[in-house]
Amino acid sequence: NAYQAARKAGVLNEEHLKLAKPLLESIQPMKAVFDRRYVKRLDGTYVKKGASKWDMAQQLIEDIHQFKEKNRCDRLVMIWCGSTEIYLKANKVHRDLKSFEKGMKQNNEAIAPSMLYAYAALRSGVPFGNGAPNLTVDIPAMQELAQAKRVPIAGKDFKTGQTLMKTIIAPGLKSRMIGLHGWFSTNILGNRDGEVLDDPESFKTKEESKLGVLEYILQPKLYPMLYDGFCHKVRIHYYPPRGDNKEGWDNIDIFGWLGYPMQLKINFLCRDSILAAPLVLDLILFLDLAQRAGLRGIQEWLSFYFKSPMCAPALYPEHDLFIQLTKLKNTLRWLRGERLITHLGTEYYD
Length: 350
Description:
Largest sheet: 4 strands, parallel
CATH superfamily of the largest domain: NAD(P)-binding Rossmann-like Domain
Number of domains: 2
CATH architecture of the largest domain: 3-Layer(aba) Sandwich
Mean pLDDT: 94
Oligomer: single chain
């Protein structure tokens, strides 16, 4: 049960766990859709069986229905907190809903387990948030389904540790026009996430999510003298003794006026799940709010929570944490019919 799983994970101490023990003991896992080809460092035994991915998606839809009935829920939200799957690129099976459903029936290899969960949620009218860097709902087929079912979606990859620091530091450097020669990042972590990312194919998915942040914030094409050709390296190492306490080191080579070199060093000793859990709670509330407010499809205003925020195809993705926070606040104000934050301040001096 969930209490046993929480004790094994070792994130919370016994003092905190015992407060929720009765509730956690009442939560039993459901059989999962699992395929080791997509998460090669794990193995699952309590898993669903089916003739096709379509069959397993139907089982998930039934699980959602049964859960809603049993717990007498009016509304549901699904958040993917599962492992990082192997790197997949969008292809023709993802281009529209008809192709995707045909692909499920044919067991197309480009359809990963996380996509089956997303499909089941959206088919059931349940908002879906993707906390991993997997492709999942970041494909036209899922976005078509979300629009058709009038369901909000958001993603991808929770922004918690080292990348959170990047989206705080990089906007500061850019605001002062401080140049960048290189940014080297390395992590050690010993939890299940670290074990999964020890596989090169899963790491590739995470790496793609992490590497895009600086490029989008610093905009080298607009500021070539400061940022063109900067070196950005990301490494993750599985180190079991560290458990859930992740440690991230950053070496940042910068330069200022007249090209004089400087450096920043960051050593972030953080707790992976402690940083992620509040994001999950916020996203549950905000995705439910979005659905109640009649919003559907990609919720770009929730990019504040993600490393690789989803947005409309023609839109430049926003990674600057402070701009993301303003978008989040302004959307909430707009939903309430309140004045938006402009920070002009001119009215104070009339």
